[in-house]
Amino acid sequence: MDVPEFAFIIPVAPKHFEYLARFLRSNPWKNTFVVFSSIDNYNNFECKDKCIPLFASCEEGSVVNYKKFEGLKQAVKAGGFKYFIVCDAEVEVVASNFNTSTIMTSLDRFFENKTIFAGDIANSKVGRQILPVVMAGSIYIFKNKDDQNKLMDLTNNFRLYTWWSDIPVYAAEHLAAFFDSIDESRLSHESFDHLVYQYYLLLYHDFKIIQIPELKWSLELFNGDFAELEKHGVHYNWVAKYSYQQNPEYFNEHGTYLLYHLDRLYDINLCH
Fold it and tell me: Are 71 and 11 in contact (CB under 8 A)?
């Protein structure tokens, strides 16, 4: 089977080997770069033949985000890919929609529409407590002070939260300029990798934020009428497993092809 123009980059720790193995067995293409912390971890992984191994070690700090960024730097050198989907290992495919046409259409659409969806964390007690720090950690990693100030304005002073608003895709052609715009020595637990990239798109590629009044946090913990969000242009390329289980027929019909948070069972009212 021909390898598509997109690839997956997934950092993994041994405790999540089982999730990753299930994903790789469900993926018909050998287009998954797996970022291992050591050769020993790689040797102990049972599905080595179904992935492209990369290695990145970080003893302290933001291990997952560091491995994702290192994975991007290494994978782009391989060439041949237009897009990289960078996600955690705890994901699951929706078989009916996991095909080249559906996935490429969703990725092209993201960069054509130039839209990033946000919820206002002022509507969430928990969000107000924890998410401004995340947004600050993802903004202050930018080298340019003017960039930081612009992002503070665009997020309404750390109120508009965009994480999980869409599939975490990176355009290969952006990566050199993206990494040049940030100071990776500032990478922290609060520097969420794709949130940083979303901010880069807002700064340098004319993306815009659309605030969705129905969201009290983000799509990650939305428990209302997903059909109601369609009027804002939302596409459900990936959703949390607990959201999908509420109405799998709806998401199957709307092109959902990847589920995340397989390892998490939330009180869905956490965002209130």
Answer: yes
User: For 47, phi and psi rounded to 5 degrees?
Assistant: -110, 40
Tokens 């355009």: give the residue: 171
For 239, the 3-state DSSP assignment is strand
Could you give the count of Cα atoms lying within 13 Å of 3 in the half-sphere of its Cβ? 15
What are the beta bridge partners of residue 7? 84
CATH 3.40.1380, domain 6-99, yes or no = yes
Q: Which residues contact 269 (CB under 8 A, 6 or more apart)?
A: 223
Q: Where are the domains of the chain?
A: 6-99, 110-271
| Prediction pTM value | 0.95
Q: Which residue has the tokens 């994903």?
A: 23
Tens-digit pLDDT profile for the chain (272 aa)? Answer: 577 999 999 999 999 999 999 999 999 999 999 999 999 999 999 999 999 999 998 766 578 899 999 999 999 999 999 999 999 999 999 999 999 999 999 999 999 999 999 999 998 888 899 999 999 999 999 999 999 999 999 999 999 999 888 999 999 999 999 999 999 999 998 999 999 999 999 999 999 999 999 887 888 888 889 999 999 999 999 999 999 999 999 999 999 999 999 987 654 444 44
